[in-house]
Write a structure and sequence with these properties.
single chain
């Protein structure tokens, strides 16, 4: 509109006539004419209104960087606040504690978005975990195992055990707003256990059992596992007492040419890709029919593992998880 108005003035039309034509004031027409004479066409283009991004911010860039790093490196309780998880309210309290400036929660939210932070579900870590042991496993122990397995033309698998209960309800379903859906299940409580092992090649081996997991069950699983291989198996497991029991050590001594155990750092389940199999199992079971007894629950569990055995691409996908990708990174 400004360009058309100036064009009309250039053609010799009266400023009052132009103002009436475009339904603006004569003062606006005079202003456009002056801007056009001073800067040409570019002077008539619209400019973003309001403050520029980052202009007149209450916190300086250095103060913002300090708060952002504090949020990333510490929990609220580390800095004298309450709780283990950061909220906008707690970050506002931290800013006030450091710089005596009050922010509303929406105001804190704008800073968080500007800093590239999002509201996320945190990963869980045991306080007993030794970060140095985790570093050594990832950077030294595991690469040495992988090199040795390649040299011996062996097979490496990650294994873990899991328990499934009849009263476990996982996942979500659709329902009317304000009315929680009801899942009917048996009032009897029963459970089954499973042991599985997976490889980066997409292989999966498993055993479902009803008794408690102990050294005898572990030896039975190892016997079944080595029967599927004509070369040595290197099995990576956690430090469960059954894995390190006297009976298992004796069994391994008698089969040292067939299988060898390697132990993950203590309290570090996130390093085991087979933990993702366990999570997948617990998510998948509610989508099948609800087991009414232990035999049905065991059958459902076996069906899950048989289905995954026919889907090696999914098994390989477990190794692409954020915390276990180190197993496939050279």
């Amino acid at each position: 509109m400004r360009l058309l108005a100036v064009s009309a003035l250039v053609e010799g039309r009266d400023r009052s006539e132009v103002a009436a034509l475009f339904r603006v004031s004569v003062r606006a027409v005079d202003n456009w004419w002056a801007r056009w004479q001073a800067g040409g066409r570019d002077a008539l283009l619209s400019r973003p209104r309001g403050r520029r991004a980052g202009e007149h911010q209450v916190l300086s860039e250095a103060e913002q960087a300090a708060v952002r790093q504090a949020v990333l490196d510490h929990t609220p309780s580390d800095l004298g606040l309450s709780g283990q998880l950061w909220t906008r309210r707690l970050i506002g309290e931290l800013i006030f504690k450091l710089y005596r400036v009050r922010f509303t929660e929406p105001g804190v939210g704008k800073y968080l978005r500007r800093w590239g932070l999002t509201f996320q579900r945190p990963d869980k870590r045991a306080v007993e975990q030794d970060p140095e042991a985790v570093r050594i496993w990832r950077e030294e122990t595991w690469p040495a195992i992988r090199t040795r397995v390649k040299a011996e033309n062996g097979e490496v698998l990650f294994a873990d055990q899991v328990g499934i209960r009849s009263d476990q309800v996982t996942g979500r379903t659709w329902g009317a707003k304000g009315q929680a859906p009801v899942v009917h299940r048996t009032g009897n409580r029963f459970s089954v256990n499973a042991m599985s092992a997976i490889s980066t090649k997409g292989r999966m081996h498993f055993m479902v059992f009803t008794e408690s997991f102990d050294a005898e069950v572990m030896c039975r699983f190892l016997t079944r596992l080595v029967g599927h291989f004509d070369r040595k198996v290197h099995l990576v497991v956690d430090r469960h007492s059954a894995h390190r029991s006297k009976a298992v050590r004796a069994w391994l001594a008698d089969h040292e040419d067939q299988v060898e155990l390697h132990f993950l750092p203590s309290y570090s389940p996130e390093l085991n890709p087979d933990e993702l199999v366990n999570a997948d199992l617990k998510r998948s079971l509610p989508h099948t029919h609800r087991a009414r007894n232990q035999s049905e629950l065991a059958a459902e569990t076996r069906r899950f593992f048989h289905r995954r055995q026919r889907q090696p691409h999914i098994v390989r996908g477990y190794f692409g998880g954020r915390h276990v990708r180190y197993t496939i990174d050279e």
